[in-house]
Amino acid sequence: MPAPKKILIDCDPGIDDALAITLAHGCDALDLVGLTTVGGNVSLDLTTSNALRLREFLGFPQVPVAAGSAGALVVSRIDASEVHGFGGLGGAVLPEPRLKAHDGHAVDFIIDTLAASPGEISLAAVGPLTNIALAVRREPRIVEWAREFVIMGGSYTRGNRTPAAEFNIAADPEAAAIVFGAGWTVIQIGLDVSLTALATGQVLERMRGLGRLGSELLIPSLEFYGMTTAHDGPAVHDALAVACVADPGLFEFTPAVVDVETAGRFTSGMTVIDFNLRGRLPNANVARSIDVERFWDLTLESFAQAAARLPWPGGLPGSPRG
Ligand code: RIB
Ligand code: CA
User: What is the pTM of this model?
Assistant: First the structure.
């Protein structure tokens, strides 16, 4: 068994962010080294509180949680509370956190963490890209220090926030433009693929056997998510970015040149994805498909691992019982 891959997740929990974090914590192939938060689905205060609550509920008190940017670089803040609920985790209500967030800003935490272990840490961004943009602007070398950089964001077909723009990109188009222009090859998982990974009734049934992880987090959050999004089950977008770090073989990718529209009256936040390189170097590997069955096998196995390690309710943070 190769050594687990270190992963740092920038997120805006958010229901699917919560599943992504649970997957990262439970998966034997991954070693979660940090969470950074950004305003997105709900406010920064709530995304940070949710990350802290998840840390203690799942039982990884030693992993730092660093709060980042509340709003976008230029555009006014938008949120997705109509999809994720006002608290951000749908019908799941986790206990108040007792441990505090990391003292420093998320941007400095990202830079310092990658600088301390160059080439060793996979960076995954599953919310608006504001923290990542500020980090590459402050320290451009992070594009070399990151082992890889995976995002859930964008689309080469249609958006979900507008007909043209996916939420994470629409929430901060200028940040996304900076990130795609930073010199690394972004591993992009967009709606085109994430909308095929649905938490169907059959998947939910497999989650019902996961004890308190199922009854207190997965089911109440996904049942809410299912009511607020169409299809025959909610798409678990962000979990795909973490699954990609754990097993990139789940996906098929095509190199592309990705630009981000920042000035379009109707298209702001659109990822303009050109698979015809025309002699240009690609700045992204764009996911074109996922093996959904193998994705759910990996995810549910990781959830089962997380469920087996869940601390006792009300235990002291940091102790084996909570
Ligand atoms: O469009 C899906 C993305 O927007 C996911 O990251 C979800 O959490 C929301 O942030
Ligand atoms: Ca998210």
Answer: 0.97
